[in-house]
Request: fold
Amino acid sequence: MSAENWVDFVKGASQTIHSVDPNVQITVLQSDFQGQKLLSDISSAFAGGCGDCIALVDTASIAFTKAIVEKAQEAGAKIVTVYNRPEDNHPWDTASDAWVANIAFDATQIGYMTGKSLCDALGGKGKIAALGGVPDNPPAKRRLEGLDKALKECPGVELLDTRFANWAATEAQSVTRGWITRFGDDLNGVFGSNDAMGMGAIAALRENGLNGKVKVTGGDGTVAYWELITKGDALSTVHDDNFNFGAYGAALAYAAAVGDVKLDQLTHAQRDFYLKQKLVDAKNVGGVLEGYRNVDLTKLSYQVLKQDFWAESAGQIGQGDMK
Reply:
């Protein structure tokens, strides 16, 4: 696992589960954004039943979510999904004894906050290009919709082009090189749907001495990207607390498994919700970096989170948000 946000996600989940039992075995499966591969790996992991298992899963694509939660139900496991839920499937109406909850960050808000930041940095006038994630992925769609919402409020900024770079720095770097050649001095900003693609764009700009001159946003909140903000190479990103993300997901799955929560007694807002997030830019990046470097993971113990499993909830996921 290479992406910093997923490393932190696993650390948070591990901290919570090992606070209950340090000897619990934790298996990490990597999908490489390939839903079929993940479904196959999970099917193998659940083969023969897994009644004492909990799972915390990004299903990679909405096309595989239903099959994966049904596999968990067949195995007797409890599962919490993150990010990818089909619009017409919910934890309370699909494999409802196994599917505990779906948790996400508000991708539309991510795109909107960083899009507004880009507009403000350009003084409300300029030309930008946008890097999207994966075409059929709801968070990727929502982040671009957030940008669109920001641009509607900022009519002086023109979107020149949108390309998908699969959340990857190398692909984003290649796409941005093409934009530099194609648009030249007309390119004033690059909207990166996540930090990795933002860093790829910055790498391409640096090759041409344009880093810091062409404004670039990200969208996950990684240390490497925050450091680029301190140097002036990056404009902004959104801090998604991935320690919390993994910890609260694992805590809810465990709580359902041991009976600390009764699934049929939970509201829809307790089973399908966003976590809190915030914009990070030059004004607050120093404090964010300090907080991350001095994070106290012991606060993510199960006994602490059990006091309020929804302390970091930003509200129920809205109708239409998962399309």
Q: What stands out?
A: The radius of gyration is 20 Å. Residues 107-240 form a domain with the Rossmann fold fold (CATH 3.40.50.2300). The chain has a mean pLDDT of 95.
